[in-house]
Amino acid sequence: MLVFLFYHMDEFCKLLKSTRIENNLNYSTRSSLTDSEIMTICVYFHHSGFKTFKDFYIRGILKYNRKDFKNLVSYSRFIELKQEIALDMALLAQLLCHLNQGNGTFFMDSFPLTVCHNKRISSNKVFKGFAKRGKTSVGWFFGFKVHIIIDTFGNILKFNFTSGNVADNNQDVLKALLEGIFGKIFCDKGYLLTPEKFRYFYEKGAHLIHKIKKNMKNKLIDVGDKLMLKKRGVVESVIDIFKIHLSVDHTRHRSRAAFLSNLFSGLIAYFFYAKKPHIAVNLQTIS
Fold it and tell me: Residue 22 sits in which domain range?
């Protein structure tokens, strides 16, 4: 797994370096560790089973992987390097999304990233003015939201990152998510739209399908669409992987750059996750 990850990280860094040279942009070697090695370690953490990056680096990398990374630095120095490549990892995550085309059937949802306990909001200095209060079905939180669209194979096609107080059906967020998405998007009640907004996205080729609230008039929908709505749990399974297996959601961040680095490396790690949740789809049934 480590060699596999390093190959892809190294190929991306070579591409990024050549692009910067062609555009006369400055690039520099940050340390004895190369950018591809730093990215590999960051992504490998999410597949390692360790719950904290400190334990992973000190008890794992420094102890067992010195032969793989001959120029390893101290933990504190690596944290600095990890923050410096957050933008590069964001670019790689976007690139991996564009490699997935989808099959016309998609699922959309969001999940919160809590940065501190609700009782410590007033004393949190790292994310002051950056994170916001938000509310989910399980209660209030302080942090951010990650919005994702996946296909039936569990591949992420689009993602967006917002503060916690941004609603799921925010038009700007949906515009960014649904750009280039053509087909049926199954989602929950949080994505209810006004008729004007629904028509806008429908004319763009994105057909949002969701359940209705109790105080709304019932409307008949296609049987295939009704069956696919019951399969919407696949996107929640993807979110569980991010939170439980890839350790993306935690409250131990000591800087904004470290938070972003952990988020994007977790997204990249998911693309290399072996057993993605998926469903079998008969396209003729739902067309």
Answer: 2-84
pLDDT per residue over 208-259, tens digit each?
988 777 666 666 677 888 888 889 899 999 999 999 999 898 888 889 999 9
Number of structural domains the chain divides into: 2
Residue 114 bridge partners (DSSP): 143
Amino acid at 271: F
Phi, then psi, of 169 in degrees rounded to 5: -95, 20
